Amino acid sequence: MNDLDNKVILTVAPTGAWPSKGDTPHIPLQPEEIAEEIYDCWQAGASIAHIHVRDDDDKSSMDFDKFTETVELIRATDCDIVLNLTTSGQLGLKDEDRMKHIIALKPELASYDCGSMNWAHSTVFENSPRFLEKLGMAMQDNNIKPEIEIFDAGMVYNALYYLKKGILKAPLHFQFVLGAPGGMTATVENLMFLKTLIPADSTWGALGIGRGHLPIMYTTLALGGHVRVGMEDNIYYSKGVLAKSNVDFVERTKRIAAEIDKEIATPDEAREILSLSN
Ligand code: ZN
Questions:
Q1: Strand partners, 85
Q2: Residue 118's domain is classified under what CATH number?
Q3: pLDDT digits (tens, 9 = 90+) for 64-121
Q4: Cis peptide before 14 (omega within 30 of 0)
Q5: Is the dihedral of CA 188, 194, 197, 198 positive or negative?
Q6: What are residue 35's phi and psi, to 5 degrees?
Q7: If you average pLDDT over residues 239-266, what whole number do you get?
């Protein structure tokens, strides 16, 4: 068996809810584009794909048919990448409309945003206690592991509460999302602090949005965490230069990891590290 200690799980988040073709013509937004991009990222070495979909007008969406089409296109190939579906692709939806795609499609992972926050000084990113209880239980019932997204320190304490209540099960897997408008900023100090709050048997990854992307990635690799790249978080390869493809980010991360004697985990190694049972 491979030694998993120096393996880094690399998630690619190619689409997200916000960037448009006007921001970057290279972002994949419709099912065929997303599935092809994920296939290419998998061939380049990505372990997990974090998936959002858009409606026919390329707007933020939780459209059930778009999720189904995207997942089926990926599953129809030889690609064994771990699928992680968002439960937060569109604001203001009913609880059920954020959950029915994961119950039907049973990805191995799905996002679990562990609290509410003001988003970009304009609206509320709502994850009510009622929703988090329902979502946690639906994930347990369907063998879907929550990726607990943390935008602010209080959300870690929410996760610890749900762990105690049995809504979440150990070992927990955290994703620290730094630099979102309204959440904690993408600083090394914030990441170091958040890491001190989680249970010792947890796994964790982190990402910095926009210009925080590379500093947070380097810090995460140095601290032994897992990383996420992709146009959901950052569309620029370097200052003022758009990435031509999400594959560019995957390949760069592989090179950076190799320089410090780490290797990117295969999808099966990621399954083992995260104790996925699906
Ligand atoms: Zn997302």
A1: 51, 110
A2: 3.20.20.70
A3: 999 999 999 999 999 999 999 999 999 999 999 999 999 999 999 999 999 999 999 9
A4: no
A5: negative
A6: -65, -40
A7: 97
Give the separation between CA 215 and CA 196, rounded to whole angstroms.
19
The model scores a pTM over 0.90: yes
Q: What was the pLDDT predicted at 212?
A: 95
Give Cβ neighbours of residue 251 (< 8 Å, ≥ 6 apart).
44, 45
Question: Who's near 108: CB < 8 A, 6+ residues apart?
Answer: 82, 83, 84, 144, 145, 271, 276, 278
Beta carbons of 30 and 252 less than 8 angstroms apart: no
The range of the structural domain enclosing residue 182 comes to 7-273
In the chain, the N- to C-terminal Cα span, in Å, equals 21
What is residue 277's predicted lDDT score, i.e. its pLDDT? Answer: 80
Total domains in the fold of the chain: 1
Radius of gyration, CA atoms only, the chain:
17
Q: How far is the CA of 140 from the centre of ligand 1 (A)?
A: 20
Cα-to-centroid distance, 88 and ligand 1 (Å)? 7
How many CA atoms lie within 13 Å of 35's alpha carbon, on the beta-carbon side? 17
Element (H, E) at 227: strand 226-229
Is the model's pLDDT at 1 over the cut of 60? no
CA of 149 to the centre of ligand 1 (A): 9
Residue 1 lies in a domain: no
Tell how far the Cα of 16 is from the centroid of ligand 1, in angstroms. Answer: 5
Q: Is residue 237 part of a domain?
A: yes
Whole-number Å distance, alpha carbon 2 to ligand 1 midpoint, is: 30
